[in-house]
UniProtKB/TrEMBL annotation:
Keywords: Carbohydrate metabolism, Isomerase
InterPro entries membership: IolE/XylAMocC-like, Xyl_isomerase-like_sf, Xyl_isomerase-like_TIM-brl
Domain of life: Bacteria
Organism: Frigoribacterium faeni
Protein name: Sugar phosphate isomerase
Segments forming domain Xylose isomerase-like TIM barrel: 29-252
Pfam families referenced in this protein's UniProt entry, alphabetically: AP_endonuc_2
GO MF annotations, alphabetized: isomerase activity
Length: 267
């Protein structure tokens, strides 16, 4: 299933723009584009939603015909239990998280311990916990922990653009993580000379215009057969003004959705 993330609305939902979109606005815009999945990722206010607010959010998603997924950061049992509770309330079948978050960078032994404490609760609730590929932890380390625990409710969110900063090639990361992938953040990327010539900037592009080997990843992952949802994100740098930035963000989203639909004819 093709989906959008709060990261596809990074600028349109920020305080930096006038009349910023609310979470409800993002859901409505997702449905307007004919997309059936929305991942509420790193949206801090969600953790403080009351029961009434959660019921209203789930009701809006039902009204719009949207499936929900959630995203948080860290492997601490407290945060993972909080998001499991939210997932159950919102009937979200997946929670994306990260091995590291801020200053919390546990080693593999501590991460394994934390996950073994919480994963059985995810199994009982039939919610999948998936850790995203990031530059702070190598994909080899990530795969080793997930494989060691060996739960069908623990997997990986694949985003090989993130691992470039750790000098891991996207093709290598994809091949290594493929058996454990539960969710796919689709974000094309490109390098450009910083200020014309000094150094490089790594930013995203509309899908199909950058360095991501989407076709190769699609063939390897077989997302439709395996039930791996493809969630659109962007790394769009701030342009010179809010109007230009938000317009370009919306255009990138539309272009990426169109590209995905052409490549995934059944969605």
């Amino acid at each position: 299933m093709i989906g959008l993330s709060t990261y596809a609305y990074f600028w349109r939902g920020s305080d930096r723009v006038p009349e910023a979109m609310s979470l409800d606005d993002m859901l409505r815009d997702t449905a307007r584009q004919g997309v059936r999945l929305f991942q509420i990722c790193d949206y801090a206010p969600l953790a403080d939603y009351s029961d009434e607010q959660l019921v209203a959010l789930r009701g809006l998603a039902d009204e719009l015909g949207l499936t929900l997924e959630l995203g948080t950061r860290g492997t601490g049992p407290t945060v993972l239990r909080t998001y499991l509770r939210l997932a159950v309330a919102l009937r979200a079948s997946l929670v994306r998280s990260m091995w590291t978050a801020g200053d919390d960078r546990p080693d593999a032994i501590e991460t394994d311990r934390r996950l073994r404490e919480v994963v059985p609760e995810y199994e009982e609730a039939q919610v999948t916990l998936a850790l995203e590929t990031y530059e702070q932890v190598t994909s080899t380390e990530l795969v080793a922990v997930v494989r060691s625990i060996g739960s069908d409710r623990l997997g990986i969110v694949l985003d090989p653009a993130n691992t470039v900063a750790n000098l891991e090639h996207p093709a290598d990361v994809t091949a290594r993580c493929a058996p454990f992938v539960k969710n796919w953040h689709v974000k094309d990327f490109a390098f450009s000379r910083k200020d014309g010539w000094v150094g490089f900037a790594l930013t995203s592009t509309p899908l199909g215009e950058g360095r991501l080997d989407y076709d190769g990843m699609l063939a390897l992952l077989e997302p439709e057969a395996r039930g791996i949802n493809q969630v659109v994100e962007h790394w769009l740098p701030w342009q010179d003004d809010a109007e230009t930035t938000t317009r370009l963000e919306a255009e990138w989203t539309t272009l990426t959705i169109d590209h995905l639909r052409k490549k995934n004819s059944n969605d």
